[in-house]
Amino acid sequence: MSGSRMKYIYLLVVLLIGQTAVGQILNVEKNRLKGDSANYFLGNIGADLNVNNRSVNDAGETLTFIGLTSNSDVGYISEHHSFLLLSQFQYNATSDNTINSTGYGHFRINWLREQILSYETFTQLQYDQGRGMRIRWLGGGGIRYRIFDEEKASLYVGIGAIYEREVWKVPLVEGALRAINLWKSSNYISHRVKINPHMDFNLIAYYQTGYDNGQDFFRHRMSIDANLLIKVFSRLSFRTSFNAAYENQPIVPIPKFVYSLTNGIQLSF
Known about the structure:
The chain is mainly beta. It has one helix at residues 3-17; strands at 40-56, 62-77, 82-94, 99-111, 117-128, 133-149, 153-169, 177-196, 199-212, 217-231, 236-247, 257-268.
């Protein structure tokens, strides 16, 4: 691996670990804390680094792989509402100059957060270089219903609608792009459970669907994001995260199912 690439990786690590914003994969539930206090900031920062040389290319040469993931969430909790800004960045590179990066930014407001039935508005910007997604922009809103929220566990459901625009690179066709604009329903279920004083598990599952008039069929998307936190100190935890997504009709011919499993550390404040 060239010296310039190693310097770039080192710079990314320093910048991402040195952020004052904080994070966890698009789990908008983690920072929706209840309580009597209000008008405060909170969040967490997470970083995962994976380095290995277990692969070889067609010539039998050893390939070095570096994978870096940074998740950052920050929230402001007012007396009646909550404001959340979530982001993630992933960078993967091999010694044969194969580079892939993905990322997103997600902003969400939960209006009247303490009520059993509250309201949400949100927007998101995303890209995925490896799969060929140049950009995905969406905006929408909906209702959020609290089934229960106790000290050791909570369960919420959300029902809403989004407007989504995607631009994809068409595989094997030089310079070809495909764009699509679609209205979709967007629904989720969110669950959190405190297993013991040192272990916390949270999960959010989404189902989104919309009718594509141009193709005369429905496009369905399902995704799941699960996180297991094991507390080491009061603010430092080990984190295992699993996320997966399935689309029945991808915009361009790519695999319908993708997933990732990562391990790392998380610092909360």
